[in-house]
Amino acid sequence: MDDLDLERVRRAFPALADGRARFDSPGGSLTPTVVAEAVADTLVAGLSNRGPVNPSERRADEVVTAARAAVADLVGGDPRGVVFGRSMTELTWSLARTLAAGWGPGDEVVVTRLDHDADVRPWVTLAERVGATVRWLGFDRVTGELDDVTDVLGERTRLVAVTGASNLIGTRPDVAAVAAAAHAVGALVHLDAVHLVPHAAVDLTALGVDLLACSPYKFFGPHHGALVASPDLLERLRPDKLLPSTDAVPERFELGTLPYELLAGTTAAVDFVAALVPSGAAEPPARRERVLTSMAAVERHEAALLARLLDGLGSMGHVRTHGRAARRTPTVLLEVEGRAGREVHEHLGSLGINAPASNFYAIEASRWLGLGDAGAVRVGLAAYSSEDDVDRLLAGLDSLG
Ligand SMILES: Cc1ncc(COP(=O)(O)O)c(C=O)c1O
Fold first, then answer.
1. If DSSP codes are grouped into helix, strand and coil, which group holds residue 223?
2. pLDDT, tens digit, 9 for 90 and up, residues 75-93
3. What atom in ligand 1 is closest to the CA of residue 91?
4. Ligand 1 pocket: which residues have CB below 6 Å?
5. pTM of this prediction exceeds 0.90
């Protein structure tokens, strides 16, 4: 099994030179130099609107095609079903408007209390607007495990929106089981994979979901969003569009001119992920395979660090953690006895440790856990996190006891 060469990985991120220990990566990962260079190079190379004639037109076209192929390789999707947008939030609002056009009174939509609000509010708002019923799926407040989806499914369920991983407490629900149950009643499944993709090898087909959303800035890329679906499903949906814009799939889901330079950065980010474990072979395997190898190494690295972190936290009587799902990302929500989250955030910050406190927009989860809208301190590991980072965090929290 190939493991990460952590020193090599860390050297790729110039921001780490400031010496801070970063636990705020669930809010957005650091960016490697290769991604920044791809963005800058594309911007200055000369870009026109996409087209077949001039080099700058062809460049724009190639950038888009390459980015669709890259995101498809990252999640095991079909490049013809990759849609780009301003953010996951924006894409989900647009998708909700499109799908809700086919819903009416009596139809039902399932959302979870574990999800980030970007995978809750668009569905709730649009369901209410068309008179459809919202069914809420909770989670166990102690373990953080999602409740049984079959409790809220029915013949009229049209959509189940579920997270691949909670950005608040790390729970990774059994998405394949949720998708199978939803499909058994004829519902579509929308997966928020924003917090899953940076931490796991993702396979859209194996998960069995219909629509998968992710955000490249969480996996070392630039700030925009992507939605991945089967081209056949996209062909059946009719989003609002301008008169002269193309009706082709996936373009008809993309509003206005795409951010070509950011898409080039996203391709570079996927290439970076694929090379996290370098292939020594003279003829390297296909990128999809290299992604899977690299992400398996990331999972092992993060799991080892998470064990070290949880072990340290477990011995601190003044620290309380939330959630302990069987499958989870290395993302821990914690409270320090007698201290407001903001105080802990500032104390750690003064020690060179980034660990903010908030509900992180998983506001339903925060309220469900009894943390109100203030939330708590979130510490999230990333592929570039080190044992030294974890030990510094533990020492910083220990000093609050
Ligand atoms: C789990 C999860 N879903 C959705 C989002 C929203 O993504 P975007 O910023 O691309 O709209 C985030 C952002 O933090 C997230 O963590």
1. coil
2. 999 999 999 999 999 999 9
3. 11
4. 87-89, 116, 118-119, 163, 167, 192, 194-195, 215, 225, 361
5. yes
